[in-house]
Design brief:
Elements: E1 7-10, H1 16-25, H2 29-32, H3 35-46, E2 58-62, H4 68-72, E3 79-84, H5 87-96, H6 101-104, E4 105-109, H7 115-120, E5 129-132, H8 145-156, E6 163-169, E7 189-192, E8 199-211, E9 214-225, E10 230-242, H9 248-253, E11 258-265, E12 269-276
Bound molecules: S-adenosylmethionine.
S-adenosylmethionine (SAM) binds at residues 13, 26, 63-65, 68-69, 83-86, 89, 111-113, 133-134, 136, 139.
C-alpha cells in the first residue's frame, strides 16, 4: 500500500474530497425537505413589497455549503448571495450551478459573523430573506457567537419586511433527561465517490463527547484509490457543534438587535424567525 501524501486534521469542508464526502453523507433536500418550506416563505415575503430591477428581492444564504438550498428552490431566478467560510464548498457550488441561477447567484467567501462586511461589498445590500439552514448555526459553538450572528443579521436585513430564518436541528437539542445519541457506525464503513473515479471513502473510529453544550465529533476518514488501494488523503475529522436547550435561541436573541417573530416546526428542525429591531429612524 502506498502511504498517504496528505494528512490533516480538519472539519468536513476543507478539501475537494471532503466536500464530495459531505455531499454523500449530509442530509439532502429529499431527506430534509426544507426547499418547499423556503419557497413558500419566499413567496410570502415577496408579496410584502414590490421589488424592482433596481431594488430586487435578495436572498442571503449563510453557510450555503454546496448550494443545496438555493438549488432546491422551485424557481431560482432570485438574486442570491451565498456565503460560506469554506472555499472548497463554494468552488463545488459554483461548478454544479447551471441555467438561469448562474446569472443571479454570487458565491461569496465570508463569515456568518461578518455579514455586514459581506453585504457592504454587494450591489444590492438589503436582505429580504436570510437563511441559515439545517442547524448550521451549531457551527457557532463559541460563547457569544450566535448572538454576534444575530446582530450581524439584523444589520443586513431590510428594515420592517426582511426576515432571517434560522434552523435548529432536532438532533442538536440538549435534553438533560435523555442520553445523547451519537451517530457512531461500528467498525469501518466504506462509501464510493460520486464524483471521483475509483475513489472510495473509508470512515472509522467514530467518537463523540459532550462537554457542556458543545458536542465533539471525531472520526478518521481515508480517501482511497480503489484501483491500487493507495491512500490518497488521510483526514482526522474533528468538529465542535453547539447543542441547544429548547427555544434557547429566543432567549439569546433578547440580548441582540434581532427581534424574535415566531418559530415554525419543520419535519426535523425548528425554524426561528427574526427581523431587525425597529429604531424609528427608518
Ligand atoms: C451543515 S453545512 C450546510 C450546508 C447547506 N447550507 C445545506 O443546507 O446543505 C454547514 C455549512 O456552514 C459553513 N460554515 C460553518 N461555519 C461558518 C461561518 N462561521 N461562516 C460561514 N459559513 C460557515 C460550513 O463551511 C458548511 O458549508
Amino acid at each position: 500500500m502506498t502511504l498517504t501524501f496528505e494528512e490533516q486534521s480538519s472539519d468536513l469542508y476543507s478539501s475537494p474530497y471532503l466536500v464530495d464526502y459531505y455531499d454523500l453523507v449530509a442530509p439532502n433536500s429529499r431527506s430534509v425537505d426544507d426547499a418547499s418550506f423556503y419557497w413558500e416563505v419566499y413567496q410570502k415575503l415577496f408579496a410584502l413589497r414590490s421589488p424592482t430591477p433596481e431594488d430586487p428581492f435578495v436572498i442571503l444564504d449563510v453557510g450555503t455549503g454546496t448550494g443545496r438550498v438555493l438549488h432546491g428552490l422551485e424557481s431560482n431566478a432570485i438574486n442570491s448571495e451565498c456565503v460560506d467560510n469554506a472555499q472548497h464548498m463554494l468552488d463545488k457550488a459554483e461548478m454544479i450551478t447551471t441555467g438561469i441561477l448562474k446569472n443571479c447567484v454570487s458565491w461569496v467567501h465570508g463569515s456568518a459573523l461578518n455579514l455586514r462586511e459581506v453585504m457592504d461589498a454587494r450591489k444590492h445590500q438589503k436582505v429580504d430573506l436570510l437563511i441559515f439552514s439545517i442547524g448550521s448555526i451549531s457551527h457557532l459553538y463559541e460563547s457569544g457567537q450566535p448572538e454576534e450572528f444575530l446582530n450581524q443579521a439584523s444589520k443586513v436585513l431590510r428594515p420592517r419586511t426582511g426576515r432571517a430564518y434560522v434552523s435548529i436541528y432536532d438532533g442538536s437539542l440538549l435534553n438533560p433527561n435523555k442520553k445523547i445519541a451519537f451517530h457512531q457506525p461500528q467498525g469501518v464503513s466504506e462509501l464510493k465517490s460520486a464524483v471521483f473515479a475509483s475513489i472510495v471513502y473509508r470512515e472509522s473510529d467514530h467518537r463523540g463527547e459532550l462537554e457542556g453544550n458543545v458536542k465533539f465529533l471525531k472520526f478518521e476518514l481515508e480517501v482511497v484509490d480503489s484501483d491500487n488501494q493507495s491512500v490518497v488523503e488521510t483526514n482526522h475529522i474533528s468538529m465542535k457543534m453547539r447543542q441547544w436547550l429548547d427555544d434557547e435561541l429566543i432567549l439569546l436573541s433578547s440580548e441582540t438587535d434581532a427581534c424574535f417573530v415566531e418559530s415554525v416546526r419543520g419535519a426535523h428542525e425548528t425554524f426561528y424567525v427574526f427581523k431587525a429591531i425597529e429604531t424609528g429612524s427608518e
